[in-house]
Structures are given as C-alpha cells and as structure tokens.
Amino acid sequence: MSANQPAPAPAVTRLSRYTKTDQDEILGTGDDPFGVAGAGLTWLPKEEHFGVRLDGRLVAHAGLLRLPVAIGDVETEVMGVGGVAVAPDVRGRGLARLVLSAALDHARARGPRHALLFCRPPLVPLYQRLGWHPLDTEVRVEQPGSRVVTMPLRTMVTPLRDQARWPSGRVRLYSLPM
Ligand SMILES: CC(C)(COP(=O)(O)OP(=O)(O)OC[C@H]1O[C@@H](n2cnc3c(N)ncnc32)[C@H](O)[C@@H]1OP(=O)(O)O)[C@@H](O)C(=O)NCCC(=O)NCCS
C-alpha cells in the first residue's frame, strides 16, 4: 500500500456472543463506562452483536434487540440499538460510524421500520451526524416491579426503510430499555 492511500476500513463482524469481559476489553473495567448509572435504570442485554477487531483486539461494538412499542396509537416494533462502544484509544476514527452502519444494514432486513436508541444529551450531536433524530415526545419504558417510568435520557431514532416516517405521539416501550 502506498503512503498516499488511506488504510482500508477494518471489517465489522457479527459476534456470536458479547460478554461483560468483551465489554471490558473495549471500555475497561470502570463502574459506569456509558455514563448512565445516574439514571438508575435496569437495561436489557442485546441479542445480536457486531464488533470490530484491530490486531485481534475487540475495539468497537454495537448491539441490536427487537422490541415492541406503541407510538401514539400505532402498535409496532423498533430495532433497539445499544451498547455502542469504542475503545478510548481509537475513538474519533469513525469506528462508531462503521459498526453502527453494519448493525443497521443488518437491522434493515429484519422488519422494523425504525431503529431507536437512548443516549446522554452530550452524544445527541454525534448521533445526529450519523443520521439519527432526537425525539421531543415523552418516552415511557418498563422497569422491574411492573413500574413504568419516563426515560430520563435522550431518545433518538433513525429510519430503516425509505420513506419510513416516525408516527406522532407519545412513545411507550413494552419492555425494559436496551
Ligand atoms: C460515543 C462513542 C461510541 C463514539 O465513538 P467514535 O468511534 O469516537 O465515533 P466516530 O469516530 O465514529 O464518530 C462518529 C461521527 O460523529 C462525529 N462527532 C464526534 N463528536 C461529535 C460532536 N461532539 N458533535 C458532532 N459530531 C461529532 C464524528 O466526526 C463522526 O462523524 P464523521 O464520520 O462524519 O466524521 C465513544 O465515544 C464511546 O465508546 N463512548 C463511551 C461509551 C458510550 O457513551 N457509548 C454511547 C452509548 S449511547
């Protein structure tokens, strides 16, 4: 490869499993690597996992989980996206864009018309840059003990099909958040 040519993008692979050890490999063993502990929520693990390895080391991940939801009076499903993580020493190189793009390509074949994620407010501009839109409506999610709570984090959505339009109205996730 000549010095002038950009390095090829690393491959995104489907991971057969994603454990706490895998997450620690990316984010380290800190108490709150996603910065969401303050929200005090219980989260669902994801079902499908996508990752990037550099020199054999797992450095990026995005997870998917299909979830039932009501948006206004529309009962449907969304593809929940979660566990988006890039190792601190390789951030800012497009790895979140790469791994999310592969996960969403997979999600497009799965049925839901939209993907949805929750994030801290400072990450809204980053996800907007990746084609996501913040919702300004109330989003309610389930928590243990049959509780339903208002999501304190920002909710963002992106279409998975051409011309998919997000219905208007309050959002109610019929599950724990992912
Ligand atoms: C959030 C996180 C995944 C981003 O990973 P990353 O690999 O650095 O992100 P990327 O390099 O792919 O950047 C994505 C895009 O956002 C842009 N971006 C980054 N910071 C931005 C900001 N503050 N405002 C607007 N755009 C921003 C980048 O320029 C890039 O766009 P481009 O490809 O058009 O240049 C990483 O910081 C992380 O793992 N944080 C800790 C865990 C976490 O909070 N995860 C999110 C859970 S919702």
- Number of H/I helices: 3
From the structure provided, what is the oligomeric state, counting identical versus distinct chains? single chain
- What CATH architecture would you give? 3-Layer(aba) Sandwich
Total domain modules: 1
Which outline best applies? globular
Strand content: 35-45%
- What is the CATH C-level name? Alpha Beta
Helix content: 10-25%
Give the helix/strand class: alpha+beta
List low-pLDDT spans. Answer: none
- Distance between termini? 41 Å
CATH superfamily: Gcn5-related N-acetyltransferase (GNAT)
Hetero groups = coenzyme A
Order of helices and strands: EHEEEHEHEEEEE
Q: Radius of gyration, Cα only, in angstroms? A: 17 Å
Calculate the mean pLDDT score and round it: 96
Do you know the CATH topology? Answer: Aminopeptidase
Number of strands: 10
Largest sheet: 10 strands, mixed
Descriptors for this entry?
single chain; 178 residues; alpha+beta; Aminopeptidase; 10-stranded mixed sheet; 3 helices; 10 strands; globular; binds coenzyme A
Question: What features would you describe in this structure?
Answer:
Strands 1, 2, 3, 4, 5, 6, 7, 8, 9 and 10 form a 10-stranded mixed beta sheet that branches. The mean pLDDT is 96. 16% of the residues lie in helices and 37% in strands. It has 178 residues and is an alpha+beta fold. The protein has a single domain (12-173), classed as Gcn5-related N-acetyltransferase (GNAT) (Aminopeptidase). The chain binds coenzyme A (COA). Coenzyme A (COA) is lined by residues 33-35, 84-86, 91-97, 117, 119, 123, 125-126, 129-130. Coenzyme A is lined by residues 33-35, 84-86, 91-97, 117, 119, 123, 125-126, 129-130.
